[in-house]
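Our example copied in:
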Amino acid sequence: MRYVKVLPIVLSLILFCPIVYANRVIQEEATHSSSVVMLNNFIVREGLLKNSKIAIIACDPNEQPLGHIHGTFLFSINGFRQSLVFTDGAATLPQSIDQSTFIYLRHENTNGTKGKLYYLIKTVNGIEPIPINWWILIAIPFLFLCIGMLFRRFMLIAVVLVVFLFVFNSTNGLSLSTAIDTLFDGLKSFF
């Protein structure tokens, strides 16, 4: 008689456990197959072949490279849309860099837009990318104008320096629209 009371419990466990296990396996497979790879941050380095090309490397918020990123991602490079194929967390731009220039990279995904401005210095040894923060685009002209306003004699020199800075930036690929985009991206990340 004692077995008659335990038998329904044992039978229900035997039937119920495989159903729960199978449901859990199906949910895990669905999660892994539908996971979308997101590119939330990136850095720019010289290409490994040192052939005057730059590489965009996917990284985490601490700028540590992520080697598991694979796929095609859409970037805006100085205002031109381009699809880049990432393999092992890196993609190489097809264009080669002939001279020192500014490059503005922007990637947009469901988490938002990530834009970065770099000054690429072309030397005999290769290319050295220097990241430029958005506040530098405000601070340097503002500093020149403040010095010019403090010392009235230097006002003309300050205005000439700001104009020279604008001309230098324009001739090296940093247009006014790119500078404004960089400022807005920086202000969005600030707030």
